[in-house]
Write a structure and sequence with these properties.
By secondary structure, the chain is an all-beta fold. It contains one helix and 25 strands.
Length: about 375
């Protein structure tokens, strides 16, 4: 396994029991992925940077800029391999001087490149259009009759010692990239050129995710992000989704032909804001101490598989995971806040977890 924290690379050869520092790479907000015979690190803030390793993470090339624009967000979210290419999604912040959390102005930018190319070269990559949440509201109008936004935009959380930031605007962030491969699914594309984004929905409420569609041109030179439409023709921005108010992680498992998802489980999002525990972070929907596992055959209907981990204290956390399947086991890391952390959001450690024989949880 392999996990990156700040600008340091650690590797483990005993399934996460021990970790060894290998290198320092000056890229923040990284994700690590394999393409061809190399391993790449992609991330950055002011511009998007990439570094390459050909010796399993022991040494890395000097980071190369892929863009001159920004700021860029990005978390260690999933990637897809199909059509001889790797597909990745990053977030571009479309208003550089935004105060607070910029979910309203984040745009999920999908990138693809041939797996056997040198991905430190700019011309290897195809980038999608830039479509922010503000752009979606301007194009399609505000959501109706679903209680979004749940609190008035700009609402402040009184008596919340952990986080007094305003909510600002509703938005989306932290996208997962998936492809529908079931020919019976209404969104299946037999040409294999359609993908979907499932994003964390910043609404003030719980258990909603945002949805978008990505279409690749036949010659693979263009990627276009827009909303998916229902069979009625109505645009779909929100889907019911367990834990969609926080960052989640989706993997497709070929043996079960199921999508597996780890997300945050909420327990008390309807508490009055002024009565929140003083250690609670942000608004009532922002619990971060429990993780749960789900599976789905279609990325819409999710079945609860198992509780995974509970920090046991609302002032601590287990959240923001990155996952991988290793044989019969599901492995994941968690951005975790222990007793010494400043709050549940600002983690002070990474924890590593194993779900043994996870496929036995299917029913």
């Amino acid at each position: 396994g392999r996990q990156v924290t700040n600008d340091k690379v650690y590797t483990s050869d005993d399934r996460g029991h021990t970790w060894h520092h290998q290198a320092d790479v000056p890229i923040t907000r990284q994700r690590v992925f394999r393409a061809g015979k190399a391993v790449y690190m992609l991330g950055g803030r002011k511009r998007l940077l990439v570094s390459r390793s050909t010796d399993e993470g022991a040494t890395w090339s000097e980071p190369t800029p892929l863009t001159d624009d920004g700021p860029w967000g990005g978390e260690p979210i999933n990637q897809l391999y199909t059509n001889g290419r790797v597909y990745i999604v990053n977030e571009r912040q479309t208003v550089a001087d935004w105060r607070g959390w910029p979910a309203a102005v984040y745009a999920p930018v999908v990138m693809s490149a041939p797996v056997d190319a040198d991905l430190t070269k700019c011309d290897a990559w195809t980038f999608s259009n830039v479509l922010s949440f503000r752009d979606v509201r301007a194009k399609y109008g505000d959501p109706n009759l679903i209680g979004v936004p749940f609190y008035a935009e700009g609402f402040y959380a009184p008596n919340n010692k952990a986080d007094k930031r305003p909510m600002y605007e509703i938005g989306w962030t932290e996208p997962n990239l998936v492809q529908i491969i079931d020919p019976e699914h209404i969104w299946f594309d037999p040409a294999g050129r359609t993908f979907h984004l499932l994003l964390r929905a910043h609404t003030g409420s719980t258990n909603l995710a945002c949805l978008a569609k990505v279409v690749e041109s036949p010659d693979q030179s263009e990627l276009t992000v827009d909303l998916q439409k229902a069979p009625s023709g109505e645009p779909l921005l929100y889907l019911p989704f367990p834990g969609g108010q926080m960052r989640f992680y989706i993997l497709y498992d070929e043996p079960t032909k199921l999508y597996w998802m780890i997300s945050t489980q909420t327990t008390d999002s309807m508490k009055r804001v002024e009565l929140l525990h003083p250690k609670r972070w942000n608004l009532p929907n922002n619990e971060r101490h429990r993780l749960a596992l789900y599976f789905s055959k279609n990325c819409v209907d999710w079945c609860f598989a198992a509780p995974l981990v509970d920090a046991g204290d609302v002032g601590q956390s287990r959240h923001n995971v990155a996952a991988a399947i290793d044989g019969d086991d599901l492995l994941f890391t968690s951005r975790s806040a222990g007793p010494e952390a400043a709050n549940a959001h600002n983690a002070n450690m990474i924890t590593f977890h194993t779900v043994s024989d996870f496929r036995e949880l299917v029913y």
